[in-house]
């Protein structure tokens, strides 16, 4: 899987996790722009872990605020 495919899959997962009418980009803030709660965010992270067969360390999630941050956390976990 290429980085571009990975990013697309993460965007789809984020879109599926929210009913937000706004377009979702790499710079979209998960809480401020999409209104995701911490529980919804963790459910989305669990979905991503299942999709990619990874475990994202909790310490990596402390700084995740945007879709781009989330993508980087997934990439780091894949390494």
How do you describe this structure in short?
With 79 residues, this protein is mainly α.
Q: What number is the mean pLDDT?
A: 92
Q: Treating each run of at least 4 consecutive H or I residues as one helix, how many helices?
A: 4
Order of helices and strands: HHHH
**The biggest beta sheet, please?**
none
Give the uncertain stretches in residue-range form: none
- In CATH terms, what is the fold-level topology? Non-ribosomal Peptide Synthetase Peptidyl Carrier Protein, Chain A
Termini Cα gap: 13 Å
List keywords for this structure.
single chain; 79 residues; globular
Question: What would your notes on this structure say?
Answer:
The protein is mostly helical. The protein has one domain (3-78): Non-ribosomal Peptide Synthetase Peptidyl Carrier Protein, Chain A (Orthogonal Bundle). 57% of the residues lie in helices and 0% in strands. It is built from four helices and no strands. Helix 1 (3-16) packs across helix 4. It starts with a helix and ends with a helix. The mean pLDDT is 92.
